[in-house]
UniProtKB/TrEMBL annotation:
InterPro entries in alphabetical order: DgoD-like (IPR034593), Enolase-like_C_sf (IPR036849), Enolase-like_N (IPR029017), Enolase_C-like (IPR029065), Mandelate_racemase_C (IPR013342), Mandelate_racemase_N_dom (IPR013341)
Protein name from the UniProt record: Mandelate racemase/muconate lactonizing enzyme family protein
A Pfam family: MR_MLE_N
Lyase listed as a keyword: yes
Signal peptide positions (record): none
Biological classification of the source: Bacteria, Pseudomonadati, Pseudomonadota, Alphaproteobacteria, Rhodobacterales
MF terms in GO: lyase activity
UniProt keywords, alphabetically: Lyase
UniProt domain Mandelate racemase/muconate lactonizing enzyme C-terminal: residue ranges: 141-235
Length: 400
């Protein structure tokens, strides 16, 4: 069997309104959200699909540039092809999330072909399943959505904490969901907190019994994360912006986190995800793949990985996502008692609906400027768009 073509399918996510009015869901992400799918075709008629993230419009060019390395190759040799692709990019410098995103989608599609050729789901090829369903957590910033997730069987709620601190809202959610539902806080910027502010906030969060405190400081500075790690007792999580085992290595080897969060669309591929989990396992670090901006194909891939590694926590899931998510692939995953069952069809177990993808051509992949509403930045400073900002008026924002 030989690879004959590599095709990409790029689409804009949103900004179609949620006509059903489901909790006001609108995942337009200020116009920046794109999904990029890869399809690899062979001379025997088998095809494999994958998904890339990490600036999808740019990643599309990377995939197209790498396609000539793939044509004529036997897709069964997944690891050999991955290494050839990785080496092909090294002349451009260290592999960032664009390169890792391209590697991810291509490698995912190769595993899909291999599973279909052998008539087995990918998790079976990875050593078999440790578990047959994967727990998921959802996002909520108000009481209504939190209760809706709990009604679906969710056992963990994560609330956003971007920009200006709002500990009152976190405290409200803890009161609403009660002690039997886990609560996590996602503090990622911009604007990012300084280490000292993250420590002050982390100490306040300790009383709320969090499952984890995510991305409290800028990801470029691991020494800042180490300062927070040494000063607070709340579990820390990070890693979604980093690709490959080389990018995530210091988070794990320095024991900077309790939960590692590689993005399933830009971590480097299914094999890289499993290697990351293996690196984390002896450190007692749990795997909770990031899925906040990803489409549905990467979610399938995450399930195959998480079925086969021992140290999983939960999979992030956008339960109330843009409705188009449920129209561009088949089948559609459904949460059952707070979990997703692992796919049982050969390969990844998902196929693209190309005519639906074609309805949403990409127009842009860059976020709008933030609104000067005092949420992401201190009022009057949004147009500065600084990467990191000291939290002002701490006394009235921190729970006392």
């Amino acid at each position: 069997m030989k690879i004959t073509s590599v095709d990409t399918y790029l689409m804009q996510v949103g900004p179609r309104p949620d006509s059903s009015g489901v909790l006001g869901a609108d995942a337009g992400f200020r116009g920046s959200r794109n999904w990029l799918f890869v399809e690899i075709t062979t001379d025997e008629g088998l095809t494999g699909v994958g998904e890339c993230s990490g600036w999808p419009r740019v990643v599309q060019t990377a995939v197209q540039d790498l396609a000539h390395v793939l044509i004529g190759q036997d897709p069964a040799h997944v690891d050999r092809i991955w290494n050839q692709l990785y080496r092909a990019m090294l002349g451009h410098g260290l592999t960032g999330t664009v390169g890792a995103g391209a590697l991810t989608g291509i490698e995912m599609a190769l595993w899909d072909i291999k599973g279909k050729a052998l008539g087995a789901p990918v998790w079976q090829l990875l050593g078999g399943a440790i578990r047959d369903r994967i727990p998921v957590y959802g996002h909520a910033s108000d009481e209504t959505r939190a209760k809706a997730l709990i009604d679906l069987g969710y056992k963990t709620i994560k609330t956003p904490f971007t920009g200006i601190v709002d500990l009152d809202r976190v405290g409200m959610l803890r009161d609403v969901i009660g002690p039997d539902i886990d609560l996590a806080v996602d503090a990622h910027g911009p604007s990012w907190m300084t280490a000292q502010d993250a420590i002050l906030v982390g100490r306040e969060l300790e009383q709320l019994d969090l499952l984890f405190f995510e991305d409290p400081v800028p990801p470029e500075n691991l020494d800042m994360l180490a300062r927070v790690r040494d000063a607070v007792s709340v579990p820390l999580a990070a890693g979604e912006r980093v690709g490959t085992i080389y990018g995530l290595r210091p988070y794990i080897e320095r024991d900077l986190v309790d939960v590692i969060q590689p993005d399933t669309g830009r971590a480097g591929g299914i094999t890289q995800m499993r290697k990351i989990a293996a690196m984390a396992e002896p450190h007692g670090i749990m795997l909770a793949p990031h899925s906040g901006s990803l489409g549905p194909v990467a979610e399938f891939a995450a399930l195959h990985v998480m079925a086969t590694v021992p140290n999983i926590l939960q999979l992030e899931r956008m339960e109330f996502d843009w409705p188009g998510r449920y129209e561009v692939v088949t089948p559609v995953l459904q949460v059952e008692d707070g979990c997703l069952p692992i796919p049982t069809a050969p390969g990844l177990g998902v196929e693209l609906i190309k005519e639906e993808i074609a309805k949403y051509p990409s127009s842009r992949n860059i976020s709008d400027a933030p609104v000067d509403d005092g949420h992401a930045y201190t009022l009057g400073t949004a147009d500065e768009a600084v990467h990191m900002q000291t939290r002002m008026s701490r006394a009235r924002r921190l729970r006392r």
